[in-house]
Amino acid sequence: MTATLGISASLNPRAETALVESPMVEIDRLSLFYGTKQALRDITMAVPKHRVTAYIGPSGCGKSTLLRCINRMNDLIDDVRVTGAVRIGGADVYDAAVDVTELRKRVGMVFQKSNPFPKSIFENVAYGPRILGMGRRGVRGKTDLEAIVERSLRGAALWDEVQDRLGESALGLSGGQQQRLCIARAIAVEPDVLLMDEPCSALDPIATARIEELMLELKASYTIVIVTHNMQQAARVSDYTGFLLLGDLVEFGVTRQLFTNPGDQRTEDYITGRFG
Amino acid sequence: MQIWPGRVWRSGEPFIWLTGGALAVALLLVGGLIGLILVNGLGFFWPRDVVRLSLADGKVVTGQIVDREAVPGRAGEHRIKVKVANRDLYGADFQWVDESAVKGRATPAEAAVIERTEWGLLIGEIREVRDGARAVAGAEGATQELLRQLPEARRLRQEIRRIEGRDIGKINAAQEAIRLRLKGLERRGVTSGTEVDGLAREATALQAGYGEHERRLAELRKGQTATVLVTADGGNQKWLLVTQVLDVYFPNRMGVATKTAHYASRLWEFVSDSPRESNTEGGVFPAIFGTVMLVVIMSILVTPLGVLAAFYLREYARQGPFVSAVRIAVNNLAGVPSIVFGVFGVGFFIYIVGGAIDRTFYADALPTPTWGTGGILWASLTLALLTVPVVIVATEEGLAAIPRGMREASLALSATKLETTLRVVLPAVMPSILTGLILAMARAAGEVAPLMITGVVKLAPSLPVDGTWPFLHFDRKFMHLGFHIYDVGFQSPNVDAARPMVFATTLLLLVIVIALNLFAIGLRNRLRRAYATSAV
Question: Could you report the predicted ipTM of this complex, rounded to two decimals?
Fold first, then answer.
């Protein structure tokens, strides 16, 4: 598919060359209100398939809210109202007919604070597959589940560290390991899209580097959307970057271009550290 | 420069002393209470020496010294309280003796303490054993002969009790069932026919069986002719049926080891036997059983109710003024006097619910109520109502403490809210639920007031669990340790003699409450380790 992404040229005319890619998620004139307060204003953009897309911006700019619109995690909050559309594979996720659990199977999520369940490492990874009834095929069901867990842990580069203690509590892992476990847990249900909400903000630099490496590996199989405070991180791992400010998507484009040659004065001010 | 008191105050030292002092006072009060109960409760079973006091006026007082106090109004003088027992001979169990009047003390080796089935202890000397009018053993061999006959007497007593309790009880139950079925047929207008005839035949057969047992009982009772002569102070003497003798011992001949063994057997009797003599003697097993069963049923009822209510309040209800009002109301419910719950239990559970059950399913038995009267189920339900706020509050606090991230993680893995609640939230909130249950059990085990009107009785003829179908009899009245304390301590005909029983029963109740709590705490700690949420 070579459809032009739904990004208006006015945002960054110089990014056009990079945007000739197939979109995975299309966000179309999305606005979100917490009660009467508008948190997102008329956002239109597309997330390209098998790429890492980063959202940057100062605190409270709405980047996490935008991320959570993609798997409808904002539904959990009372008094939230959404207009516009988020399309995955052409279907609007806000359509009344959409099964939210089905959506969340396709769109996995990793949170800011690692949040493993107080269960064993194995059970953490197996949680999603069990919910979805995966690995329940006849007498070999257990073995299938084991295969899924191993594949997911390998995918999150955690297998070598934990293969001898799958039965132990996940809470005994280090912070970085816990976050990779959360990634393994998210990819165990084989989603198309992986949302990451500041996944490294609570980690030390070494653990951060490992997660970043992992993201580069994962993008071969998954479309990744990441929210980050850390502009170096966005520059290192992402292919595309969107800059949000006070609920507006100020600029969206190829990462290198956005950082080296921003099209908007506000973007330049932010990435050069003049505010934020 | 700062003045001295200000500097000391600001150093914090006085406040530390103040807090420490408050704790010390609290510990002292609790420790004193428990110590008092321990000393009085455990001392009860120790076989004390029998002392023979010769008084100035020539009288002799034989008994166990149980207390000593200053004589009011006469400085420096003391008097002692002697348990002389032999209520049937002297009219009172206890006698006060001024120490100044005591001319001599002796501990005669032949002084025997006899426990018997009625009239309390008998203290005296064993003189003779007869069978009917025939002398069996004189002064020399009387004790040996009595001890020889005791096992047979015990066997006889047990057989009589078995026939009276189990065999005749079964016939009574069967007869009652037939009577109800006949009454039911009569209500439907059937007064003759094969069914009625069959029931009548059954009734006749039962009556014959009853006569059989009656004959056997009369035979057994007629065989009880052996008597023992015991002499006491002031020339009193007592011919006692050997079958009435439960135990004989000679405290003045016993060493510490023998006394300890006797102590242990008395303690065992206390926790394993049924009460005798309007609860002032014997054991408290039915009360232990009733207490534990009550608390267990209460826990089984209150936990699901409280947990589900808390889940709705915290997980599903839209937080707002109404939910806040409900929460405040629930919290205040915990402060309502327990007797109010008791009255509600009587009015609602017994009269309305029980009455409806009786009218619907037990109409034949009316006007005798089956469920429309106090019983262990109604008492448990009343206590469950009383303790449900505790469980709700504890569970709610536990739910509020579960990190949001854990729920989000589950939801993001495409679990539904129900799956999240059951697989993630419920296990994580388990320790809090158990905390609530521990508090609820502690409160329920100590309640007496609501039970007194919802099913506790002074003496229950049978346990709520037995061998007759359907084995668990939730409609039965039951005994309870808390009520037992009140009954023995304040409603007993012989309060002085029963007082040690009160302490012993109190001690037992404390032990049971602590044991139930320890069990629940152990369970909670295991769950805490399994579901530690600190790292999330």
Answer: 0.85
